């Protein structure tokens, strides 16, 4: 069974940090593009960042550039999203997702339709 499991979410104050993890099971995460997405209440899901099999990174949101960093550890079959200087507007459920086509690049628009395997999400809440 192909599965992604997110963890690391929680409640932090403005300016705080969190590191989200996305652990894969049933497949080798290292040959797939992995994206992080988020969905705030009442809003559409939006792409945050993606890392390709080669380590190439696509950051989709200007609002998180310089604050969020995506990385991967293929030995642990895990992708991370390090989030720093968090703001209340970062509050959302964060999802990771895999493009099921091996060696496919990250799409520049981080469109959710290009990602086939999704985790259940982890809640991030930033208090002011």
What does this entry look like structurally?
This protein is mostly beta strands and 128 residues long. The protein is built from no helices and 11 strands. It has strands spanning 3-7, 10-13, 18-25, 34-39, 46-51, 57-59, 68-73, 78-83, 92-98, 117-118, 122-127. Strands 2, 4, 5, 6, 9, 10 and 11 form a 7-stranded mixed beta sheet that branches. Strands 1-3-8-7 form a 4-stranded antiparallel beta sheet, with no helix packed on it.
| Strand residue percentage | over 45%
Spans of at least 5 consecutive residues with low confidence: none
**Helix fraction?**
under 10%
**What is the molecular shape?**
globular
Strand count: 11
What is the H/E order? Answer: EEEEEEEEEEE
Outline the biggest β-sheet: 7 strands, mixed
Termini gap: 40 Å
Mean model confidence by pLDDT: 95
| Rg, alpha carbons | 13 Å
How do the helices and strands line up, and which of them pair or pack?
Blueprint: E1 3-7, E2 10-13, E3 18-25, E4 34-39, E5 46-51, E6 57-59, E7 68-73, E8 78-83, E9 92-98, E10 117-118, E11 122-127
Considering the chains and any ligands shown, give keywords for the structure:
single chain; 128 residues; seven-stranded mixed beta sheet; four-stranded antiparallel beta sheet; 11 strands; 0% helix; 46% strand
Give a short synopsis of this structure.
The protein has 128 residues and is mainly beta. The chain has strands at residues 3-7, 10-13, 18-25, 34-39, 46-51, 57-59, 68-73, 78-83, 92-98, 117-118, 122-127. It contains no helices and eleven strands.
